[in-house]
Amino acid sequence: MHVIKFPLRLGLLALLPAISLLAQTDETRWFHFDKADEIVPSTMLENQFAYDAGIAGAKDGLWLAWLEFVPGKGDELWVGQRGKDGWKSKTKLSEPGDYANPTVTIGSQGSVWLTYEAARFGLWHVFARCRQPRGDFGNEIGLSESEYDPNVAHRAAVDPKLGLCVIWQARKGREFGIRGVRLTEGGRRLPFGGGFPRGNKWSPDVAVTADGIVHTAWDVYADNTFNVFAQSFHVRLEAEPDPLRMDAGPSLGVATLPNFEAHARIAPDKNGKLWIAWEEDGENWGQRYTARLPGRKDSTHMTDKLGPLHRFRKLHLAQLDEKNSKLSEYEIPQPSFDLARNRTNAPEDLKDFGAFYENAQLVVDGKDRPWVVYRHFYVPWIGIELATHKQENMRVYARCLLPDGWSKLYSFKEGQGDGMQRISATATPDGVAVAWTTGRTDRRKTKDPHGVAFAEIKIGDAKAVLPAKSSERKLNSAPTTEPSPKRRQRPSAEVAGKHYELFYGDLHRHTDISLCFSPVDGTIDDAYRYAIDVAPLDFLGITDHTHDLQMGEPLAHIWWRSRKEVDRHALARRFIPFYSYERSRGDTDHNVISLRDDMLRPHTYPLPKFWTELDTNTITIPHQPFNRVLWKNKDDTHRTLLEVYQGMRNNTCEPDVADGLSGGHHFGIISSSDHLSTDASFACVWAEQPTRESLFRAMQARRTFGATAKMILKVTAAGHWMGAEFSAKQMPPITVKITATATITNLNLYVDGALKSSVADLLQGPVGSELTWEIPPDKSLTGPHNFYVRVTQADGNHAWSSPLWIDIQP
C-alpha cells in the first residue's frame, strides 16, 4: 500500500477526492477507510443472533466459541470446530442465561479449554470447561470463587508447564483488581493475584512463555490519565502444601504519556520474546469539557487535547524486554493520520481528531511474525462540520510485521457496527484466523449481515511492502504513577435523626450506540471508565436512544448487551450503574431510569400511555431542550426529576422550571451531560445507603440538586429535606448549607419559580469551608408555596436545589 501525500495548503474540495482513493467503495462521503491490498473472504455463522465469538487454531481445524441470543430468554453458549468442509462438531453447552467472552484455548498437549463469564444469581464469575477424550466438554470449573463481584474481561493463554492460565478484572474492595489462576490438565486450580501494584486496573491480558513465566499487561488510572503497565511472575512448582509460589517482578511503565493509553495486548514468540500492543487517545481524557462555545449554539468545539471521550485512536506495537527494562517500538502504518494532519479546513488544535485505529488483537504466528488485527475508520468532518446521525460499519483489518518490514494490508468485507463488538484473533502456522461480531441494529434497515464472521489469512514466505520504522527507549522499573487510590469520603448529613450521604452521578450519558454524535461519544467501556475513575462518579445511567436500541423493542439484542454491562460494572458501595435509556420523542420525558432491566419500550406512543405501564420502580426525566407541551401531562409519581442544566448545550432551562412549578408539578432538580460533555454537570443525590435501591428511592423523594461542579448543597426546613412536601402553621426558616469549590458570589431564593431575594459575596472563609445561610420566614406568606435555591460561584459554576413545597396554614 502506498501512502498518499498532500500539499499542506490543499483545500477540502481537493482533499476529499484524494481521500476517496483510500476508500474501498464510494458508498458514503461521511466515513473513509484505508484501501486494503487484499480483501479476505469470510464465513458467517448460521444464526444472525450469534455474537461475542472467540477463535482458536488447532492442528485439525479452527475452534470457535460464541453466544446465540434467544429473544426474551438470553444467551446460549456454543462451541464448535470447523474443518475444510464445514463443521466437524457443533455443540450447545447451556440453556439461555447471562454469558460473555466465550474463549477457546488450545493447550500445549492439544487439550481444548473453554473459558467464559456467566452471571449466577446476579453475580458475574469466570468459569472453565475442558474437552474430554470422548469429545464432550466436562463439568464447569469455577475460577473466580471469591464472593467479590463482578469478575469480568477475562483473557486466557496456554501454559506450557501446567495447562492453562486465565486472568481477569475482579472487584477488590472498592476497585477493580487483577485475579488469575493456572489450571492443570486435570482441572486443578492454582490461584494467583498478589503482587500487582495498587490502582483501579482495567483490561488485563496474559501470556506464558515456555519457561513457565507468566507475563501480564493492563492499564490503570493514575495521575489524571490511563497508562499501560506490564509485570511478570516467576513461578516455581514446589511440594505440598504450597504447590505454586510466585515471585512478582517489577511493574514496568510501558506507556506513560499524559495521553489516554489503554487496552494492552501481550503475546510471546517461540523464543520467549514478548510483543505488546496498545491504543492511544488524547490528553486530558475525561477532564472538564463542554461542547458548546459561548454564544454558539450551532457548533461544537473539540480539540486533540480537550474534547469528548473518543477523539482519535492510534495503535502502538513494541517488543518488550522485561529483563533489561527496554521497549523497542515499531511504527504501525496508519495513513489516515497523514490525511487528518493535512486538512486545511481544520483548526490548528485539531490534527489527529477523527482518525481511529483501535481494538487491536495481537498474536504471533507459527513463523514468529506478530500480527495486529484491528478496527479502523476515518471521519474527516468530525469537529469541523456539525453533522449528526452518520454511521457506517467500521472495517476490520490485519497486518503482520515481517523480518524486512510490514506485510500488505488485509481487510474483510464485513465490518463492525459499534465499539463494544468483539474481535478475536488466533495464530496459525502461517498466518492468523479472526472472528468478529458484525452488523448494527439501529433505526435504519441495512443490507449488512448480522452475526459472527470468521476468516483465515495464510501468507507463507511473504515479502514486506512497507518499511518498519523502529525506536527504542528505557522503561521505568519503579514507576511512581500507580499510587494507592485515595478512598473517597462521601459528604454526610443528619436530618430528623437519619444519616444521609451525598452521591454524585450522571443520569443522561450516551455512547456510540446512539447515532447523534457517533463515534465521538465513545463506547460503553469508555463511559464506565470515565464514570468510575476520571470523574469519578458514584452512579451512572447510560441513556442510549430507543431509536438505536432497535426502536425500543423490549426483546432487542442490543438492549440485552447493554443491560448486561450494567451489572458487569457495578462496584459495591463505590459505583452503581442504572438500567436506563432515552425514549427519544419530542413530546415525551426522554430519559428513563429503572431498577428493572425489562422496561425498554418504543418511543412511538405518547407519554401518558407509557406512564400507565410503569410501576414505582421506574421514573422518567425531561431533558433539554425542554418541550413545554410536556407540562400538559402530569404524573408526580413517575416524573420525579427535571434536568435544569445540560453540559453538552452548556445551557439552563430555569424558565421551564418556573412554568412547571407554577403549573403545580412536583419535581426534583439535577444536571446532566447528554452527549460529548464530561465533568461539567452532576446529578447530586442525598441517599441513606450506597445501593441502587436507596439511590433510586432518594430520586423519587426528590432529595437531589443539580450542579456544574462538585459542590455540597443541603437545603432543609423544619426537619424536612429539599424535595419534601409538608404543612406548617407558619413558614419555617429555610437553612442552606453549602461547601463551595470557589468563592460564592450569589445565593438566590426562588419562591413559586420567581426570584424572591439575593445575597451576594457570602463566602469570606477559605474555599471548601461550609457556609450556612438561614432564610428568615416570610410571615406574609400563606397557603401552598414552593422554594428553591440557586448558588453562583465566581468561576461561573452553579448549583440548584430541589424545591421545598410548604403549605402554610395559620
Topology, element by element:
Blueprint: H1 12-20, E1 38-40, E2 43-44, E3 50-58, E4 61-70, E5 74-83, E6 86-92, E7 99-106, E8 112-120, E9 123-130, E10 141-142, E11 151-158, E12 163-172, E13 175-184, E14 189-192, E15 201-208, E16 214-222, E17 225-237, E18 244-248, E19 252-255, E20 261-268, E21 274-280, E22 314-321, E23 326-330, H2 336-341, E24 355-364, E25 370-378, E26 395-402, E27 405-406, E28 410-412, E29 423-428, E30 431-438, E31 451-458, E32 470-474, E33 492-495, E34 498-509, H3 524-534, E35 539-542, H4 557-568, E36 576-582, E37 591-594, H5 607-612, E38 618-621, E39 641-646, E40 651-652, H6 654-662, E41 668-672, E42 682-687, H7 692-700, E43 704-707, E44 712-717, E45 720-721, E46 725-728, E47 734-739, E48 744-751, E49 754-760, E50 770-775, E51 783-793, E52 798-801, E53 804-808
Parallel strand pairs: 1-28, 34-35, 35-36, 39-41, 46-53
Antiparallel strand pairs: 2-31, 3-4, 4-5, 5-6, 7-8, 8-9, 9-10, 11-12, 12-13, 13-14, 15-16, 16-17, 17-18, 17-19, 20-21, 21-22, 22-23, 23-32, 24-25, 25-26, 26-27, 26-28, 29-30, 30-31, 33-34, 34-42, 36-37, 37-38, 39-40, 42-43, 43-52, 44-45, 44-47, 47-50, 48-49, 48-51, 51-52, 51-53
Please provide a written account of the structure.
With 810 residues, the protein is mainly beta. Among the domains are: 491-708, Metal-dependent hydrolases (TIM Barrel, Alpha-Beta Barrel); 712-810, Immunoglobulin-like (Sandwich). The protein contains seven helices and 53 strands. A hairpin with a 5-residue loop joins strand 20 and strand 21 (274-280).
